[in-house]
């Protein structure tokens, strides 16, 4: 099989972060709105599903073509090599969306795509009926400006579902978003990290996984593991590579607190499920009493807002407490995601950087207050010969 055209989907505003991740994994990329394009082999489907921290899913780009009419959509889909992927007993539901296209009826477009795939498979398998009781292949048709993009989803449940969070707190941040915000910060595993509104502990657990180089998909399964077109050996190789890459001998300085005792219980359970309960310190504590320890650390937090905390006065009070906290932490950096337009005012100073992001469907800013970087360790002198 020739090189596959693959797509890593990206939340709006985080395409560059996903592209950087793929570059670090060794792939050349092209970035578009909401997705990053790259090419690879069968095993790269496995590797990317296991390793991508900030993407939502890994898709196979089956084809792209103009489709102003249902006939064009039908013929374009039918021409694609569905028999290379979908076995005779495979289940193949169709999802869809349309934007600025003449084919504006999504249900109608989904029906045409389904019909076209059926016709192609009928010709190949020489049968008129498909039981659809085998592995699952979710096909998606995306219509944009009268261009149809047809993809096959290899991921299943989105990549933020790592498998360690069995319980959730109110309005938790997605694991993929938390990982992206960590990557946009100055934090690395050698620096202290503190979250004064830690909720279910997502920032801290994701940070530990990053520091120890734990592939985020190691604790979950994917529908494409059951596809005949992907040999079990490919998944086995990718998982063995990931297990071999873990570096769990690096000391971590990860601390979180929250005013809600139930949130701390959820966070501790999630850390235990992730195999990290001994590496993260959690405590029940209001943000006003938070006292991060160490030098050159980072505070990263998703403070309550909107549906999570309806009292605007409480939000203002919490933001002022953050500003006061930072006055006593001259070597620390502070990062917070918030929809508040008055965050900087209540914090007490302008952010050094801001970045517009969407936390779910809520438009937010990622406020970044940058402290000094840690001093470089002195070079070790070598003995003269």
How is this structure best described in words?
There is one protein chain. The chain is of the alpha/beta class and 385 residues long. The protein folds into 2 domains: 4-153, VC0802-like; 175-369, Rossmann fold, CATH 3.40.50.150. It has helices at 15-24, 42-51, 70-78, 106-125, 175-184, 202-211, 232-245, 261-273, 312-327, 343-347, and strands at residues 4-9, 30-32, 35-40, 58-66, 94-99, 138-144, 147-153, 193-195, 254-258, 280-284, 298-301, 333-338, 353-359, 362-369. α2 runs parallel beside α7 (232-245), α3 runs parallel beside α4 (106-125) and α5 (175-184) crosses α6.
CATH topology title of the largest domain: Rossmann fold
Please tally the helical runs, counting DSSP H or I stretches of 4 or more residues: 10
CATH class of the largest domain: Alpha Beta
* CATH second-level architecture of the largest domain: 3-Layer(aba) Sandwich
Poorly predicted ranges (pLDDT <50, ≥5 residues)? none
- Helical content (DSSP H or I, runs of 4+): 25-40%
Major sheet details: 7 strands, mixed
CATH homologous superfamily assignment of the largest domain = Vaccinia Virus protein VP39
Count of distinct structural domains: 2
User: H/E order of the elements?
Assistant: EHEEHEHEHEEHEHHEHEEHEHEE
GO molecular function: RNA binding; rRNA (guanine-N2-)-methyltransferase activity; rRNA (guanine-N7-)-methyltransferase activity
Organism: Paenibacillus durus (Paenibacillus azotofixans)
Keywords: Methyltransferase, RNA-binding, Transferase
Domain THUMP: 44-154
